[in-house]
Amino acid sequence: MYNSRRWPLIIDPQTQANKWIRAMGKIEGLVICKPNDRDLLRNFESALQFGKPLLLVNVAQELDPALDPMLKRQYFRQAGKLVLKLGDSIIPFCAGFRLYITTKLPNPRYNAEVSVKVQIVNFALVPR
């Protein structure tokens, strides 16, 4: 998950990855939000600007198109700083930012558009 060029989308029906990420990010000030939160973009802006990890929990089979610039890592330089245009605002990008996306769906079917933007990691436990 750390060496990938794409942000991880974790299939986590037992919520083990969710607990692990929460424990790992507690020290760094992990920001936790859901796709239907009113202030979702504001949370993303804050996490980007201050270099905090962000956990987006319980996503469905489609991701919000407003997050595309972040998922595609469409950063650019402005006045010598690395920035990202998210919605109507331009946010400075801090190097400590990490994005984790989790879903509780046991067997999600993501279309090609989503699969290209994220690294899918399966955390599901399978009985033998």
TrEMBL record:
Superkingdom of source: Eukaryota
Q: What is the phylogenetic placement of the source species in the record?
A: Eukaryota, Metazoa, Ecdysozoa, Arthropoda, Hexapoda
GO BP of this protein: microtubule-based movement
Listed GO CC annotations: dynein complex
Q: Show the InterPro entries listed in the entry.
A: AAA_9, DHC, P-loop_NTPase
Q: Which residues form the signal peptide?
A: none
GO MF terms, alphabetically ordered: dynein intermediate chain binding; dynein light intermediate chain binding
Q: What is this protein called?
A: (African queen) hypothetical protein
Occurrences of domain Dynein heavy chain ATP-binding dynein motor region (ranges): 2-125
